[in-house]
Amino acid sequence: MHRLRQLYRRLEARGLTEEQRRVIEFELALAEQSGNPEFIHQFGQAPAARSFYSYADPELFAQGLPSPVLSLVAAQSLDHLLQRDLQREQDGFPRKIRIGKLVKPGRDGDDKVVVIPTTVEEKLIHDRVPEDEEGEDGEGQDPGEGGAGEGEEGEVIGEQPVREEQGGGSGTGQGQGGSHELESTVYDLGRVLTEQFALPNLRDKGKKRSLTRFAYDLTDKNRGFGQILDKKATLRRVLQTNIALGRVQAGVPVDTGNLMVSPDDRVYRILSREKDYESQAVVFFVRDYSGSMAGKPTELVVNQHVLIYAWLSYQYQNQVETRFILHDTEAREVENFQAYYQMQVAGGTQVASAYRLVNRIVAEEELARDYSIYIFHGTDGDDWDTYGEETLPELEKMLVYASRVGITVAENGLEGSRRSEVEKYLSKSGLLEAKKELLRMDVMSKDSTEARVIEGIKRLIS
Amino acid sequence: MELISQHAKRIMEGCKERARQAGLRFGDETLEYIVTNRDLVALGPKVMIPTLYDYWVQDVEVLRDQGRYELYPSNPYETVINTRPPISYYNDNNPDWLNVMIFYHVIGHIDLFQNNLFFRHTWDYDFAGRALADKRLFARLRSEKGRWLDYVIEFARTIDNLVGYFDLLAESGETGGERSLSLLDYYFDVFLQRGTKPGVSLYAGEIERYNRMCREFPEDGELRFLKSVTEKHRELETLYAKKLREKKQVGRTDPLQFLMAHSPFLNREENRWMLMVLEVIRSTSLYFQPQIRTKILNEGWASYWHDTLFLGDDRIKGHEVDYAIVNAKVTSMPRVGLNPYALGMRLFQYLEQRADRGRTGLAYFQTRDRQERRSFDRATGQGRDFIFHLRENYCDSMFVNQFIDQDFVDQHRLFVVGKRLNKERMTWQYYVRSRKAADYKQMVADSLYHPPRVEVRVDGNNVLVLDHQFEGKPLLRDLISGVMLGLEYLWGGEVHLYTRVPIPVKSNREGDDQAREEMPKRTIQWKRFRYSMKDRTLSRTLAE
């Protein structure tokens, strides 16, 4: 907190506009409320009120049987369903199938993202009477819930953090099978996106570097026939055969002329197709997780990043390495997508810190040599570094090695319709035009739909 | 899916025998199937009816966000379905004592299905058989019409929650021929009571005059009276004729029925097959209506009986503790939440006890003295009869609104939970908001299933008009466009929907800053809007 204040004072000394000050003070206040900004909070699921209609016999009487509720009937394949959806559009009705992402909460915070087609049947139903956005007013129209047991009127019987800590870094215990499920569905989603939503295909664009490359190398061994005889391995086999036949014995000198050579003993090297790992891609997902991002902007950015990740997974045949970076005034790398997806902190915003971290990782691990590097950054556009004095140099450094830098600005609606800092200094810098092939920006409003998010991806990657 | 073993079936028959002795009434035949999880997955989307028609939405995960139970009221994972014979589903490898418990529970459900008057319209036929016929019909139509069948199903389903279930109940409840509105009825029931302030003295005077004429002229008193009235009010007869016409045309609030009768598009020769589809959707929906309206009653009744009968069953001696564990899971009141099994069972037990002591009658309610009330006991022994009466004649809303009282709330230490934001600690706090019976009752009543009421009529320009009857809640806006699109297709022309929408009003920003801090609450104002769907585009305008 102290450091944030110091930073604020330093910035103030350099001069801030009225709006700037307001945004920064808002974020500072948020940070103060949740205590130490170093202490990472995560989203807690809103306390789900269980409808009493959801109680059912099988669940209550069954003993330890898994609930079938989460299963999906696969009577028709995803392709078939999407085909049908496309047909709807041709018939003049809006599409109905959405690609949903279901986060299955697991123990120890190792939640899984499962990708499924979803739909909703439209009916006229009652909505709730809108309440105050904060929902702070307990005496309002909200009918409340049932309860039983001890306690006086007014007594607090339970508490739940608004943002919950859920073990961010516990990726170690995750079973292999589990993560495989995630990967395969993400891959499927990528295919769906590419095919159905007509996202561009990287290879079709005729990029110079083929993205999945195969090298043909004499690496595989084969007995009986082949291109080149592997003499050492063949001799070894010949000896084995002769020992088995009793023609070579310990202590007796070996007469090489007498050794039997069976056709099977000859070991050859043959040409084989090897995946060229140099054509792998590494993707940096960078997300602003400062206080002003809470709610809708975070959701939009994370959703978009899931979809980009899926698309890249498909394009690179799963040969995508991902790095996840979160930043407020400082940046940190997190291990897995779940942590990336969920973490939320109430701190300030400095974009430069994240870019610096990306540059450092790339330099230290020499990633630029072997990988195509993609960087996707999601932010609400606030930056305490108003003119991008620190950010722009880092960004330029980045553009030297990156295949694509995509910046998503999801407006938080805090400061009305004015353009955000990131937007402003980026367009001012002229980088967007000068490096058009490398740098893209997409600005979304707070209430963008899934379709808009996909549209945004097209802009970022095309 | 296979039938349960002969051994288990024998146990079931034993349970039926004991249940009959206790007073439950149900048909002799029942079908019990073993289902695996895989079966359940396939049965779930078909609301456990194996023969339900196929529809692609069943193959897609349905979004489970807000309004899920409003949208999909028929619980897909029920154990018993109300068919003839009733079918119930079991896990393989349940121990016998658990089966006994579940059998009693199931028998409770069956008894309610077959005796509760809200299920009356399902008594005359076997839904499984009907569904199979419908499924075959759809299969044939699908082969002829292809995807257009699915569109019609989809559009019909957008309004299948608005079916006129209570109209149907009223019709089947009516005895004898239909009694139409006579001129005399119209005069007294409508004509005299119009205007803002109908005079009571005038009304009473007219009744008195009518009675006097009937007494004086036993033969044609009524005619004379009517003659005098029509002479006095010249407009009466025209108004009456208009009213009759209106009634015939508008009548029901069931949009599906209305479309079938009046849609020019559906009644075109080449589209007549769609009528069959609409009828199937409508009758299927009607079939599920009573289920959602008797959830507390149904689960409470079944839990009451498994609890009562299991402990008296001699076949399961030695499993009392096992039973207690499962039973506690099923019928315990959660600290926060509403368990229909627990609430319903406790209400039945509570009411049985009260009726046993004669505490349901006038004498009890006229007893003002608290002490006397507490010791009030007529020892009538009418408890069982009373709860059997409830199971026959009540639905959830009647059950809840009539019987949750302060004694009940106190006895089970019930309360309403509120949720508030604690800004200092940044937490949601759950707290005991109220222990008053009225609040608890209101809370339960508010969470009961209640689809919006929509009245349908045709406008002068052949526009289909839906009029949402405002009950303090808006319609879920995201879904309106899809519904209207479907209706436009089925109607074959423009469709309007009138509904009220809450418009937030900024609170007056006058006064000093402090007052502003204390009054962050926004108020809302209800405005009536008209949504119109024309050529597949939706627009919204302020009506009024």
Overview of this protein structure:
In chain A, helix 5 (176-196) crosses helix 7 (296-315), helix 7 packs across helix 14 (450-461) and helix 9 runs parallel beside helix 11 (391-401). Chain A contains 14 helices and 16 strands. In chain A, the strands form four sheets. In chain A, strands 12-11-10-14-15-16 form a six-stranded mixed β-sheet, sandwiched between helices. In chain A, strands 6-1-13 form a three-stranded antiparallel β-sheet. In chain A, strands 7-9-8 form a three-stranded antiparallel β-sheet. The longest helix of chain A has 21 residues, at 176-196. Helices cover 35% and strands 21% of the residues of chain A. With 462 residues, chain A is an alpha/beta fold. Chain B has 544 residues and is of the alpha+beta class. Among the domains of chain B are: 185-249, no CATH class; 404-451, no CATH class; 453-542, no CATH class. Chain B contains 24 helices and twelve strands. In chain B, the strands form three sheets. Chain B has a five-stranded mixed β-sheet, with helices on one face. A four-stranded mixed β-sheet of chain B has the order 1-2-5-4. In chain B, strand 8 and strand 9 form a beta hairpin. Mean pLDDT of chain B is 85; it is low at 64-69 and 510-519. Chains A and B meet through helix 3, helix 4, strand 2, strand 3 and strand 4 of A and helix 2, strand 3, helix 3, helix 4 and helix 6 of B. Strand 4 of chain A pairs antiparallel with strand 6 of chain B.
